[in-house]
Amino acid sequence: MLLTQSAIGEQYRSSQNLDTRIALHDRFSTNKYDWMRWVFDHMLDAAPDSRVLEIGCGSGQLWKNNLDRIPSTWAVTLSDASAGMIETTQQALAGSAFVAQAQFRQFNADALPFDAARFDLVIANHMLYHVPSVDRTLGELRRVLRPGGRIFAATNGPDHMRELDELLSGFDPALKLQPVTQTFRLDNGAAQLQSHFANVQLHRYHSDLVVTEVAPLLAYAYSMARTNIAPERRAEFEAYVQAQFDRRNGVYIRKETGLFVATR
Ligand SMILES: C[S@@+](CC[C@H](N)C(=O)[O-])C[C@H]1O[C@@H](n2cnc3c(N)ncnc32)[C@H](O)[C@@H]1O
User: Fold this and answer.
1) Number of domains in the chain
2) Strand order through the sheet with 257-263
3) CA distances from 17 to 5, 21, 244 (A)
4) What is the model's pLDDT at position 152?
5) What is the spatial distance between Cα 114 and Cα 19, in angstroms, rounded to a whole number?
6) CB of 202 closer than 8 Å to CB of 152
């Protein structure tokens, strides 16, 4: 079952849930080369006068983590459907020189408020699986890209965070993670991109989680819209997770993440 559009709006009303999840990855990932730095590495060959659009920018982490190397001649539009996310992004970047070359806009990726062929790069990271129609949004992204322009779209694979799924469903089968990313994943994204773009390439980022503290993992679980544990069951749930940690001396969770790059 996919999240409804109203559940997505609720989940991302503020950046709090996303921040909690990013914090777990930041602290316990086995790959210490930052994910956002790795993603940005793939864009650095873009022309100095590039016009760049990001949709579903979340808390602006891609830009925050690369402030030291964003070409100062790029014109960048950061957008998200959530007003709260845009506010957080603006706050996170306030005071940096980058603000002078950035615009912040709130709109839905269904229909982009731009003329055709306006951008050289479009970025849609970990968000295409949330839009009501991936095909429609990819069509919009193609429309606003100039011929030869590139799309960057990060997503997860079907086994991403599988051990967390097993941990939760071991407590209660009803907590089995719903496959919220299934409409655009590493295993089906290329075919969808090929309907709109050429030269579709997938770059995989190799990293897993070795979580050695219970509290950040509990916070992660509670941050997800689908982990709806009733308040009266939380003490029991937390004791269960603690017991799993004690038994295994921490928790290993595999990740499956990557970045598609394609050309209009
Ligand atoms: C998982 S977060 C990813 C944020 C960021 N791209 C990153 O990689 O950290 C998904 C983001 O997509 C936004 N979003 C969801 N549906 C959207 C839509 N239809 N149009 C625009 N943004 C959307 C959410 O508000 C949220 O900020």
Assistant:
1) 1
2) 102-106, 75-80, 51-54, 119-123, 145-156, 257-263, 198-205
3) 16, 7, 24
4) 98
5) 29
6) no
Strand partners, 76: 52, 102
CATH code for the domain of 132:
3.40.50.150
Q: Which domain holds residue 60?
A: 5-263
CB-ligand 1 contact for 85 (6 Å cutoff): yes
User: Phi/psi at 103 (nearest 5 deg)?
Assistant: -120, 145
Per-residue pLDDT, 158: 94
The answer to whether residues 77 and 105 touch, using CB atoms and an 8 Å cutoff, is yes
Residue type, 11: Q
pLDDT above 60 for 1? no
Q: Is the CB of 86 under 6 A from ligand 1?
A: no
Can you tell me the mean pLDDT for 243-258? 92
Residue 160 Cβ inside 6 Å of ligand 1? The answer reads no
Please tell me the predicted confidence (pLDDT) of residue 226. 62
Whether residue 2 has pLDDT greater than 60: yes
- The structure's pTM equals 0.94
